[in-house]
């Protein structure tokens, strides 16, 4: 049908699914319509505009004729899928915009419960975006109808023309980033990877700050070492080193700890000597960078150094000169007390923990034996 100022219903949810035009793009479209008329039909469903919002705005503003094609759909969800696929099939979209549409498409696929390994290309014989474009423009149904079962994540990535990793990253960006940051990604001022790295870094910093607060409270509510009574024959200590003591704050962007640190002078005052029995074994966790401190602590606490146990990590870490892949446990003794076992090597392999400076449980199991 055609005519002047045809009253179509504007649905905000449908309109929000369409990537907005830039000011220059809108002005170019308006100039073309004023010169050539509205050559492409608008599309509606039950009198609701689902495609051609900018053309509708321009035509009603200038009292220009336009035609409308009414398409039948089974549900609003099917309309949303069609709108997104139509955008992906016929517009030269920036990388972020394609992934952003993919995130929306994933939601509507999941709403339909499309969860097995079949895909639209196999069902419909679609092999490229031109076929998707042709089908989406000429069919009254979405490319994926209610009977099609797919793996939503893989299919969304395929239809969007981006990797599923990009879909996941843009999903995270849309969830956490500010409107200003998202707009920078949309315009291409920053790449998807740059924006994702930025928000993940902020997220980690916020988590670390929260952990610091929680750990400080735990220390306040816990029993300080100065109040611990008794004598111990085995002491394991993992000092909260302050990197500032070594002017070593930038090891290839190494993350700051999420716990309260202690200056070396304070660690030196720890009551290890008072807590150590006449015969005692000391296991002191130490980084390769801080080995001189470790030997000073051992002497100050009245122990004598024997050897070190080396934790061999599964991958390299940070470091200003060499990339660290090991960490040491200095073994020192007071008095004369043998080990219960004589089959332990001076190195062990164990995975890294998830938390900052987390030590593997394997070493504690070893020490207890």
Can you characterise this structure?
This protein has 369 residues and is α/β, with parallel strands linked by helices. The protein has two domains: 2-191, no CATH class; 225-368, Vaccinia Virus protein VP39 (Rossmann fold), CATH 3.40.50.150. It has helices at 12-16, 23-36, 53-61, 76-90, 95-111, 120-124, 129-138, 152-160, 164-176, 179-187, 192-221, 264-268, 272-275, 291-300, 361-368; strands spanning 2-3, 9-10, 42-45, 48-51, 66-70, 232-237, 276-286, 304-312, 326-334, 347-349. The strands form two sheets. A five-stranded mixed β-sheet has the order 1-5-3-4-2. The longest helix has 30 residues, at 192-221.
Characteristic key phrases:
rod-shaped, five-stranded mixed beta sheet, Rossmann fold, alpha/beta, 15 helices, 369 residues, 15% strand, 2 domains
Distance between the termini: 86 Å
Largest sheet: number of strands, sense, barrel closure:
5 strands, mixed
Counting structural domains, the number is 2
Radius of gyration: 32 Å
- Principal-axis shape equals rod-shaped
Q: Identify low-pLDDT runs.
A: 1-5, 114-147, 250-254
Number of helices: 15
> Which structural class best describes the helix and strand composition?
alpha/beta
Helicity, as a percent range: 40-55%
Overall pLDDT score: 80
Strand order of the largest sheet: 1-5-3-4-2
Could you give the count of β-strands? 10
Order of helices and strands: EEHHEEHEHHHHHHHHEHHEHEEEH
